[in-house]
Write a structure and sequence with these properties.
The complex is a heterodimer. By secondary structure, chain A is mainly β. In chain A, 0% of the residues lie in helices and 53% in strands. In chain A, strands 2, 5, 6, 10, 11 and 12 form a six-stranded mixed sheet that branches. A four-stranded antiparallel sheet of chain A has the order 3-9-8-7, with no helix packed on it. Chain A has a two-stranded antiparallel ribbon with strand order 1-4. Chain A is globular, with a radius of gyration of 13 Å. In chain B, strands 2, 4, 5, 6, 9, 10 and 11 form a seven-stranded mixed sheet that branches. Chain B has a four-stranded antiparallel sheet with strand order 1-3-8-7, with no helix packed on it. The chains are: A mainly beta, B mainly beta. The interface between A and B is medium-sized, with 22 and 27 residues.
């Protein structure tokens, strides 16, 4: 069965600094990988996906994610964090049966 | 504007009641999903559906069933509600070309079972 690990419950960064939210995965076959964001008191939103192709995927709100097959990682990144990026972030992997598995989530706090 | 709507934002039910959670999407999507979200546990897949009258079990289907009689509507049923089913329930949909992952989420239903 596939699995997703987000090793950090909490990530704190200063506004303007680069941010990274980590994700590693385990799945049989080629992975389909996703990042989602949940802002306070708002619904879950899709950020970006990796299906195939370029290892660097660009998504919404200036976020990007780097797929690394050898390290089975899919870390979310942003060059310059904003206070408004503070939210709960989820990584997810889909297997070939269609089942999507989510990580436990990482709370990102960006301080001014 | 894309929309996934859920019938209730907040719901309080008693133990043993049969509970229906409704989800409707207006995007003609084939794929629909039901997740529950609990602090520290992320989102866990209950059931998903690739088409009308089709359903597949997710990771935690026990105590739940689903119905998809029309493409736009995916219902989650708690046959006999229990306190451990108190949770936030999220519905999602996606078109088939997103490799099957959920794309649009509803606002969620916070269910409390007393």
């Amino acid at each position: 069965a596939q699995s997703v690990a987000q090793p950090e419950d909490q990530v704190n960064v200063a506004e303007g600094n680069p941010l990274t939210v980590k994700c590693t995965y385990s799945v049989s076959g080629n992975p389909y990988l996703f990042w989602y964001v949940q802002y306070p008191n708002r619904g879950l939103q899709f950020l970006l996906k990796y299906i195939t192709g370029d290892n660097l995927v660009k998504g919404s709100y200036g976020f990007e994610a780097e797929f690394n097959k050898s390290q089975t990682s899919f870390h979310l990144k942003k060059p310059s964090a904003l206070v408004s990026d503070s939210a709960l972030y989820f990584c997810a992997v889909r297997d070939r049966t269609g089942k999507s598995t989510f990580g436990d989530g990482t709370t990102l706090t960006v301080k001014p | 504007d894309v929309k996934v709507t859920q019938s209730s934002r907040y719901l309080v039910k008693r133990t043993g009641e049969k509970v229906f959670l409704e989800c409707v999407q207006d995007m003609d999507h084939e794929n629909m999903f039901w997740y529950r979200q609990d602090p520290g546990l992320g989102l866990r897949l209950i059931y998903f559906s690739y088409d009308v009258k089709m359903k597949e079990k997710g990771d935690i289907p026990e105590g739940y069933s689903v119905s998809r009689e029309k493409k736009e509507r995916f219902s989650l049923i708690l046959e006999s509600a229990s306190t451990n089913q108190t949770s936030m329930y999220l519905c999602a949909s996606s078109p088939p070309n997103l490799a099957g992952g959920p794309r649009y989420f509803g606002p969620g239903t916070r269910l409390t079972v007393t």
